[in-house]
Amino acid sequence: MDLVIAEIQLALHRCSDTRLKHIPMLGGASILFSKVQVKGDGSFALRRGKRILCFDVAVSFTWEARDEHGGPLGAKGSGTITELTQDEDVPCVAIEVSATFTGASDAKAAGSWMQTHGSRVIAECLSTSALSSAILKAEEDRTDISADAALRLHEQAKTHAAERVTGEMREKLAAEQRSSEEARKVHTEVVQGSAWNTNSWHWEERPRTEWAHAWLKKELRDLSVALLGGLASVSFSKVQVSGDATISIRKGRPI
After folding, report:
1. Which of 63, 82, 150, 229 is the most buried (most CB within 10 A)?
2. 49-67 core/surface letters (b: 16 or more CB in 10 A; e: else)
3. In terms of Cα–Cα distance, which of 63, 124, 72 is closest to 93?
């Protein structure tokens, strides 16, 4: 909305400096604007890489006529535009004459000219096509569209990263389930006893140190722990395992 206000004010001042300066029909008199106010709404939308401008505002201002030397001519008043939108190319400008001093003919002529010709000149200066182009250009200068595209790519990358973390979590859960099943298998599989222990019927303790070391090293090397919501992870290397492991058997099964 700030760009809409700024461009409308700039358009009116540019109109005063060009088309309303040294007006031949008024003997070289000029029209000056002041107290320009713009109220309403304005916004941008981005579609397929192109900015779309929407605005609906009301404009008010005061004006004063100055003679060819810059002195007061004796005529002043106000102007209003009740509706200025991107859909209407030429707005309707209403001019009010609030005072003509001394009743001079030049002052009366300036007031009459503003109501008949000045309103049309102001409407042309605020034509929607030119105004919209100026606002869009100012917005493009302020905000590079490629920055918006980069932001969208960044958001997409964050989404993909979250999906990847979710996939990694699913894989981790599956690996943990397989590991648990393998552990249960170790406890339920038939373990062969020594030659003296026929059918492994009697209680006997068997070494499992080599298997335990290998299993622990594999599990720790394959383990990856996500941190900070997936922004970082911890893994293990150079795994060293020490100690002893045994399993007892009786009646052909571990106990």
Report:
1. 63
2. eeeebebebebebbbbbbb
3. 124
Query: Residue 38 burial by CB count (10 A; 0-12/13-18/19+): exposed, middle or buried?
Result: buried
Residue 206 near residue 252 (C-beta atoms within 8 A)? no
Q: Per residue in 139-198, pLDDT tens?
A: 777 665 556 666 667 777 777 777 776 777 777 777 777 766 665 555 444 466 677 777
Q: Is the Cα dihedral 147, 153, 156, 157 positive or negative?
A: negative
Q: Each residue of 108-129: pLDDT tens digit? A: 899 999 999 999 999 999 888 8
218 C-beta neighbours (distance < 10 Å), count: 12
Q: How many helices (H) and strands (E) does the chain have?
A: 6, 9
